[in-house]
Each structure stands twice: as structure tokens, then as C-alpha cells.
């Protein structure tokens, strides 16, 4: 016969209006019990599969835990603004000749986009991105409101400004890592002298020569007689 009218679950019937076992309407209580029984069987099968393949289950649990930890540590828009203002403040404390031109240009670009309202934030479950929009959100121009003139997703890599992952913004941190070093001052040096590695600054030979100046000077008998 024809299918009876379909009601919502809150009306006491499910889609189709019939119980597959008896042809009568299934009540909300029976439907909930059947749903719980299905979930219990699925959980029982998952436990049985974990016992049969413990390494695979441990790997899946570790991957799930890593995803949840990354999702909980995704930075928010306020953290990006705080990091940007801290980087700008750190540059202001330095004299202009000692500032890194790369860090100064990058921070200045972000501040200009921020003042114009062109910074956009997008969360991606385990990470976040900050990209540049062509207009402020409050602009009422036709070019800004028309969806057919909006930037397409293939253009996103050229407008990407920063990537947030693990509680920090990586591009901003990389650009301002050595903000107190002016790379242009070393442009006239040979290539092998433009970069100093950590082992060259903390070598044993440098430490030995540094400690030599604190030792007392020992004069020989000939040197003492010559002074006398």
C-alpha cells in the first residue's frame, strides 16, 4: 500500500512511518533503544579489533590524539595581532641602522594591511592561515561586493601571509628571528664571511684565547734582568 505520511522524530515516528519488523509505527523509546544497541555493537567490534591488532590500534589512537592536540593548539586571530604588535615593538626599540630590513619590510606590510582592514583569518581544523583580502569588509564598492570579482582559491598562495600551527605563527617568527641584525651591512664581504656559524662563536680555541688574557704574565730571568 502507499507509504504513510512521514513525521519528524519529535512527533513519535521515524522516516517511513513503519517498523521493519512488524509494520507498525515505532515509538521514540524503541528507536532510541535500537540506536543505543547499534552503538554498543559498534563499540564491541572496535574493542575486539583493537585486541586482534594492538599495534594498528595504538597507531590510530596516537594519530587521533595528535590531531586533537593540534586542533586544540590552533592560534586564534587575537594571537596573531598580539604577535604582530610585539614584533613591531621589538623593532621600535632598535636603532634604524641595526634593524633587519627583511623583518622591517614584513612587519610594515602586515601593519599596513591591518590598518586597511585587509587581513583575513581562516581556521583549518589543525592549522590556521592569515591571508590578504583586496578590500575591507565594510567597503560597499561594487568591485568589493560582487562575488564574481572576488579572488579565487588558486590565487590564495600569492595572498597568503602567515600559517599558524602548534600555538605559533611560523612566517612571522621566521621573518623576525634576527630582527637586530642588518644583513645589508655585510653585503660587501666575501660570501664565506657573511655568515658566522654557532660552532665558530663557541669553539674551544676562542674560549682558550679568551681565558689567556686573565692569566698573569710570567717573565723569564733574561727578561727580568733586561728590565732591571
From TrEMBL:
Q: Name one GO cellular component term.
A: TIM22 mitochondrial import inner membrane insertion complex
Name of the protein described by the UniProt record: Translocase of inner mitochondrial membrane 29
List the lineage, top down: Eukaryota, Metazoa, Chordata, Craniata, Vertebrata
For biological process, the GO terms are: protein insertion into mitochondrial inner membrane
Cite a single Pfam family from the UniProt record: Tim29
Q: Which InterPro entries match?
A: TIMM29
Amino acid at each position: 500500500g502507499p507509504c504513510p505520511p512521514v513525521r519528524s522524530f519529535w512527533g513519535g515516528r521515524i522516516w517511513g512511518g513503519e517498523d521493519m519488523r512488524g509494520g507498525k509505527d515505532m515509538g521514540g523509546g524503541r528507536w532510541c533503544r535500537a540506536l543505543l544497541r547499534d552503538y554498543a555493537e559498534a563499540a564491541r567490534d572496535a574493542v575486539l579489533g583493537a585486541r586482534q591488532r594492538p599495534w594498528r590500534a595504538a597507531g590510530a589512537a596516537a594519530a587521533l590524539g595528535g590531531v586533537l592536540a593540534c586542533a586544540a593548539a590552533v592560534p586564534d586571530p587575537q594571537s596573531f595581532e598580539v604577535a604582530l604588535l610585539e614584533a613591531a615593538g621589538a623593532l621600535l626599540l632598535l636603532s634604524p641602522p641595526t634593524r633587519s630590513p627583511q623583518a622591517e619590510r614584513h612587519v610594515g606590510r602586515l601593519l599596513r594591511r591591518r590598518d586597511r582592514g585587509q587581513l583575513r583569518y581562516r581556521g583549518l581544523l589543525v592549522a590556521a592561515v592569515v591571508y590578504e583580502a583586496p578590500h575591507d569588509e565594510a567597503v560597499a564598492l561594487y568591485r568589493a561586493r560582487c562575488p564574481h570579482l572576488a579572488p579565487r582559491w588558486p590565487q590564495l598562495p600569492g595572498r597568503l601571509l602567515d600559517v599558524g600551527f602548534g600555538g605559533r605563527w611560523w612566517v612571522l617568527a621566521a621573518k623576525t628571528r634576527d630582527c637586530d641584525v642588518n644583513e645589508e651591512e655585510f653585503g660587501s664581504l666575501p660570501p664565506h664571511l657573511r655568515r658566522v656559524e654557532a660552532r665558530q662563536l663557541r669553539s674551544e680555541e676562542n674560549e682558550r684565547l679568551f681565558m689567556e688574557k686573565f692569566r698573569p704574565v710570567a717573565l723569564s730571568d733574561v727578561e727580568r734582568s733586561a728590565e732591571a
